[in-house]
């Protein structure tokens, strides 16, 4: 785990060493030592492994590179350079990037198979270029105020700079309380933005306006319908095994986050072929007061089955209802950038893992690539056309507060500060960004839903994983997010991913329990299950899909109800001038009486702690 940081003075002022260090120390949890390189008006820093030459300065001093992340095809690229007579003397990734940049320019990024955030300063052109991996796994933020441009792995390092005032981005706040996510690449901090996945952003002293180039995008439209199921299954096995092995390279102290589901179990199965006696880590929950569908959220039994099957060194932690309350301030401090749902389980799992290993493998991306969210797809599979699809999915993805209730959620003053109130257009732009999407049949609609979720929901999960693992000096790697595996997964016909589509199509539109049948339909990742059936126990393959989530619907009604009330309805609450506490009180009463508002309650708690942590500070 590491972090990068840099300051560019666009009008030629010199960057000071103390200026850099004051910001970099805010990311001290990301590494053991700070490395800095200052060249007049540019300063670039790295915090991480003391043994790494990062930032790297080329022999002729024309290129400075700093990188956070991993290039999993590093050896292949080094061999390619050696054929051209170029030897990487330091054997560091930063030197490799510098040499590739000199040969290929910015297009070098197309050759990388990895998870990374990279900054390159070209001293001749006085241009700074920022690169983010195609899947958006490693975050990279930037801020531009007056003549100072800053980039960083974390927001807290940017806002530590004296030129960056801390203020709320009200448009982002409106977006967050609609989707529990940000589909545009801004943050809750005004003047701080995120570099999009698969994007190159450049700025120079001659051209102080940022340029942006998207170098790659997902494409589920070019499906190869001529593939046989057997061919597909065999290719998945080959590419998945290759992907896991790539991410095991160069790491001795490595483990697996084990949920008990198929994705992490598949990773463990392959990793165990390469490494004996792996460490595995699982979170469970104290379930005495848990009711309804949440009663199945504790996956320790399935994880223990896998751990025993592959003879791992297995560790578990049981979370109680009160554990959320104690850790909320730490979570929000490290998360900074509020996205997605309840994540204190991620924090505790990273904390547990960090006691034993430096790197963990996880199953992120398996659902999005292979169709694991059947209950979502079936809300739009019968759409009539493009507009009908977008309207239906927009309605579904309003996870927190509907458009009609926004004026009730926010105070009058806050709502007046929201310039872009049309969140439907924000949602629509995610889909219209890709001109290749088709809306002709159920398979197209499911493919488009997969595209939407892998562009929005999955990157939010990656942000959470990066921040909360970094809080403990831990690195997470998402094995499914490998260039070759992703490219092939996109070409797989929908009929192989989602079984029995025809039976869902035949459901009567007026059936009273139609949506229950959709929710119970355990049809996703069919081809992945077939590919893994020889290496994973049958009980795991047949286990119904469920997310990695804590039983907060029950806990908010029972043990945590006092904490929730005391935090959100306190007359001195930090968000009291932003959020209407009367509306919040009504939401809590509805939840206690049976309506499930667990997502909104989590987001309100998160925002209250965000205000306490960053605005009050």
Structural account:
With 617 residues, the protein is of the alpha+beta class. The chain folds into 2 domains: 3-169 and 186-214, Glutamine Phosphoribosylpyrophosphate, subunit 1, domain 1; 229-372 and 439-541, 3-Layer(aba) Sandwich (Rossmann fold). It has a 6-stranded antiparallel β-sheet. α9 (323-335) crosses α28 (598-615).
Number of strands: 17
Which shape, going by the Cα principal axes? globular
Major pleated sheet: 6 strands, antiparallel
Task: Indicate the percent of residues in helices.
Answer: 40-55%
Q: CATH homologous superfamily of the largest domain, by name? A: HUPs
* Mean pLDDT, all residues: 91
Query: How many structural domains can be distinguished in the coordinates?
Result: 2
The termini sit apart by 27 Å
How large is the count of helical segments?
A: 28
Strand order, main sheet: write it out.
2-3-1-9-8-10
Poorly predicted runs: 507-512
CATH class of the largest domain: Alpha Beta
Report the CATH architecture of the largest domain. 3-Layer(aba) Sandwich
| CATH domain topology of the largest domain | Rossmann fold
In angstroms, what is the radius of gyration?
A: 24 Å
Note the beta-strand portion. Answer: 15-25%
Which structural class is indicated by helix and strand composition?
Answer: alpha+beta
């Amino acid at each position: 785990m590491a972090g990068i940081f840099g300051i560019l003075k666009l009008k030629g002022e010199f960057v000071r060493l103390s200026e850099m260090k004051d910001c970099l120390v805010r990311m001290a949890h990301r590494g053991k030592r700070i490395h800095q390189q200052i060249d007049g008006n540019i300063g670039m820093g790295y915090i991480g492994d003391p043994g790494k030459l990062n930032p790297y300065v080329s022999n002729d001093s024309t290129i400075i590179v700093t990188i956070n992340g991993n290039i999993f095809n590093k050896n292949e690229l080094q061999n390619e350079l050696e054929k051209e007579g170029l030897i990487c003397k330091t054997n560091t990734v930063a030197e490799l990037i510098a040499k590739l940049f000199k040969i290929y320019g910015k297009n070098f990024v197309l050759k990388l198979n990895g998870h990374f955030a990279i900054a390159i300063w070209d001293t001749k052109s006085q241009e700074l270029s920022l690169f983010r991996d195609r899947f958006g796994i490693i975050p990279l933020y930037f801020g531009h105020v007056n003549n100072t441009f800053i980039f960083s792995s974390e927001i807290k390092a940017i806002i530590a700079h004296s030129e960056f005032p801390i203020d709320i981005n009200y448009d982002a706040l409106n977006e967050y309380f609609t989707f529990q996510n940000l589909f545009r690449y801004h943050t809750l901090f005004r003047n701080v933005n995120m570099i999009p996945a698969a994007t190159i952003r450049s700025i120079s002293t001659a051209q102080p306006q940022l340029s942006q180039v998207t170098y790659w995008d997902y494409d589920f439209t070019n499906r190869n319908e001529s593939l046989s199921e057997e061919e597909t299954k065999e290719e998945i096995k080959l590419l998945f095994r290759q992907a896991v092995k790539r991410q095991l390279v160069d790491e001795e102290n490595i483990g697996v986050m084990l949920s008990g589901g198929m994705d992490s179990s598949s990773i463990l199965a392959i990793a165990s072929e390469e490494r004996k006696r792996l460490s595995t880590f699982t979170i469970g929950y104290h379930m005495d007061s848990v009711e309804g569908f949440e009663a199945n959220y504790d996956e320790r039994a399935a994880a223990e089955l896998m751990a025993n099957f592959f003879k791992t060194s297995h560790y578990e932690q049981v979370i109680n209802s009160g554990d959320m309350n104690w850790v909320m301030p730490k979570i929000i401090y490290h998360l900074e950038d509020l996205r997605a749902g309840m994540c204190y389980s991620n924090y505790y799992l990273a904390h547990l893992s960090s006691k034993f290993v430096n790197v963990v493998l996880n199953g992120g991306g398996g659902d999005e690539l292979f169709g694991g969210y059947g209950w979502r797809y079936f809300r739009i599979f019968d759409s009539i056309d493009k507009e009908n699809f977008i309207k239906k999915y927009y309605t579904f993805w309003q996870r927190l507060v509907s458009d009609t209730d926004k004026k009730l959620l926010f105070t009058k003053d806050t709502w007046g500060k929201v310039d872009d109130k049309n969140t439907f257009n924000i949602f629509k732009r995610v889909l219209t960004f890709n001109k290749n999407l088709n809306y002709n049949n159920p398979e197209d609609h499911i493919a488009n839903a997969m595209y939407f979720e892998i562009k929005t929901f999955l990157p939010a999960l990656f942000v959470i994983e990066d921040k909360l693992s970094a809080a403990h000096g831990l690195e997470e790697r998402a094995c499914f997010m490998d260039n070759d595996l992703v490219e092939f997964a996109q070409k797989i016909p929908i009929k192989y991913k989602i079984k029995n589509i025809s039976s869902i199509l035949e459901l009567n539109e007026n059936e009273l329990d139609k949506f229950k049948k959709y929710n119970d339909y355990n049809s996703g990742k069919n081809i992945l299950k077939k590919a893994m059936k020889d290496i994973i126990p049958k009980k795991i393959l047949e286990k119904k899909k469920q997310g990695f989530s804590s039983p907060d619907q029950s806990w908010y009604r029972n043990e945590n109800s006092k904490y929730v009330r005391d935090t959100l309805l306190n007359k001195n609450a930090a968000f009291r001038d932003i959020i209407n506490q009367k509306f919040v009180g009504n939401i809590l009463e509805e939840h206690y009486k049976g309506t499930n508002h667990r997502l909104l309650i989590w987001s309100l708690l998160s925002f209250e702690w965000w205000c306490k942590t960053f605005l009050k500070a």
